[in-house]
Design goal:
By secondary structure, this protein is of the alpha+beta class. The chain contains 20 helices and 13 strands.
């Protein structure tokens, strides 16, 4: 701690010396704190610190969102295999870095990584000490405060130093996880609060103005004009009455009466004329630019957003998260794994599928297509929805219509044989799963139709939306059972036109069951 005080006093003495040489730089408490690295003073007059900046709602939202999303993505140790890769669950590092593990004996890994990313977002640097056992195994990660930790070269060797209550501790760079932002000096990331102190100073100054405006709601800032020779006691009394009767939001909208030929001239700028609402919106956009976020994620409704949830998530990952995730994964791989393990093909990486996962309808389509092509087993796709597996569900299948025709067997005979095999397979446990998908799709379509009919709205106007609900599922199931989809969804919809609202649901449910039964048998009603 003594070294930190020494460095701070040294900087303060340097500032005082410069101030004496240049009278335009006054020596103030804010200027001393700014030069010591603890706070920064912007041209707007507001003093900016990390805690004050984090109290600014748009910045708090951005930091909370990015750090939380980065921390909740699974970080795993992977081992390459002949079949691809697998999570090395038996590796000591896996128990430390995984989000459900323990970073050390005090906090779980999710808390650790969220704090780690938050430090990098606010200070431009995040440091963590790697605790190793006598055998060299990683047993814990401990956070170092970024406002009192720094990197420097000693005799050409890069080391990390941090201030503690017992003095300065020095670590080898190999024992420190260092996540940095954009670097200027080639050693550490640039201090975010220092770089954007002007923007934060403007935002905090506007917030202070807004608070004071509501505190003194009568626009009390102004000039009290009096005639020459007016009794000074009367002037003081009038000024006191104005302050007592009209200051404060609970005393707003009262009438001001001034006697003795006195005149009140307001000098306070109206928030609307000062463009305060526009300024606040512009500052939100500035925070979005700082972290490369789409402004819509910070609540600006007029900003451009993507047509689909998947595209929005992909843009959010590519623009705001990926460089933090890749940088942290690279640092973990090089510092937490040995050279021999890295040469053997082991690495640490985030599983971003947890962020980019699709909606329920798209997942169903992926599952059916994946089972059909042999990419997934039924139990794997059931696991996506946290469903229990069933016996025999780990078997993977390939499309039989892609197999080579056996010598001596005609194409027609081979097709019929494959169709009989496929039909019998549908009537097994897989048929139950396909039926559930079809019933769920038809159920949603029927609800939409009945609601529209109850409101006396023409069904034909909503044909495209209703058909789209069931068409994709029918098309995929038709391919699985060996039949060709031939616009069955539109035919089912046409059978419902002209029915009375009272009998529409009964007829629609009966018709859908008929279509499902025939479809699973590879037939057409």
């Amino acid at each position: 701690m003594g070294n930190w005080i020494t460095r701070t006093l040294s900087r303060a003495a340097s500032w005082v010396s410069r101030s004496l040489e240049d009278p335009s730089q006054p020596v103030t408490v804010d200027s001393l704190l700014a030069d010591s690295g603890e706070s920064f003073v912007g041209d707007a007059g507001a003093t900016v610190t990390a805690s004050k900046a984090l109290g600014y709602a748009p910045l708090h939202q951005a930091v909370s969102m990015i750090s939380g999303d980065c921390a909740k993505l699974p970080l795993n140790v992977y081992r390459r295999t002949d079949m691809g890769r697998t999570v090395a669950t038996d590796h000591p590092v896996q128990r430390v870095v995984h989000r459900y593990g323990m970073a050390n004996e005090e906090i779980n890994s999710y808390k650790f990584w969220r704090r780690h990313f938050a430090c990098a977002l606010l200070w431009g640097n995040a440091y963590a000490w790697i605790d190793r056992s006598n055998r060299g195994d990683v047993v814990g990660l401990y956070q170092l405060l970024p406002d009192r930790t720094w990197l420097e070269r000693v005799n050409g060797v890069l080391v990390c130093r941090t201030q503690t209550q017992r003095g300065t501790r020095t670590f080898s760079k190999d024992d420190i996880l260092h996540l940095e932002g954009l670097s200027i000096d080639g050693i550490a990331g640039a201090h975010v609060i220092r770089c954007f102190r002007q923007d934060f100073s403007i935002a905090l100054a506007a917030k202070q103005f807004e608070s004071r405006f509501f505190k003194n709601n009568m626009s009390a800032g102004g000039i009290l004009q009096v005639k020459q020779g007016t009794n000074p006691n009367k002037v003081k009394k009038t000024q006191k009455e104005i302050d007592e009767k009209f200051a404060g939001s609970d005393k707003a909208f009262k009438t001001l009466v001034i006697r003795d030929a006195m005149q009140w001239i307001s000098t306070q700028v109206d928030p609307q004329k000062a463009q305060l609402p526009q300024l606040k919106e512009d500052q939100v956009r500035e925070v979005a630019r700082m972290y490369n976020l789409p402004p819509s994620r910070l609540g600006l409704k007029d900003s451009v957003s993507h047509n689909s949830l998947e595209a929005d998530k992909q843009n959010y990952h590519d623009g705001a998260l990926s460089h933090w995730l890749v940088g942290n994964a690279a640092e973990c791989t090089t510092k937490l794994l040995t050279q021999e393990e890295r040469d053997a093909g082991m690495y640490i990486e985030n599983n971003i599928n947890a962020l980019l996962w699709a909606d329920a309808l798209t997942r169903n389509t992926i599952a059916i297509t994946g089972i059909q092509s042999g990419r997934f087993s039924p139990n794997e796709t059931r696991g996506w929805e946290n469903y229990d597996s069933y016996e025999g569900g780990d078997t993977k299948y390939i499309p039989l219509n892609l197999q080579a025709i056996e010598p001596g067997v005609s194409a027609e005979t081979g097709f019929r044989s494959r169709r009989r095999k496929r039909t019998s397979r549908v009537h097994s446990s897989h048929g139950t799963a396909y039926r559930a998908l079809l019933e769920e799709a038809f159920g949603r379509a029927i609800n939409r139709i009945c609601i529209r009919s109850d409101r006396n709205k023409p069904l034909e106007e909503d044909r495209q939306n209703v058909v789209a609900i069931v068409e994709n599922v029918m098309r995929n199931v038709s391919a699985l059972v060996g039949s060709t989809y031939a616009n069955e969804a539109n035919e089912w919809f046409d059978s419902l036109l002209g029915l009375d609202a009272s009998s529409l649901r009964v007829h629609a449910e009966a018709s859908s069951r008929e279509w499902i039964d025939k479809l699973l048998k590879g037939e057409k009603p």
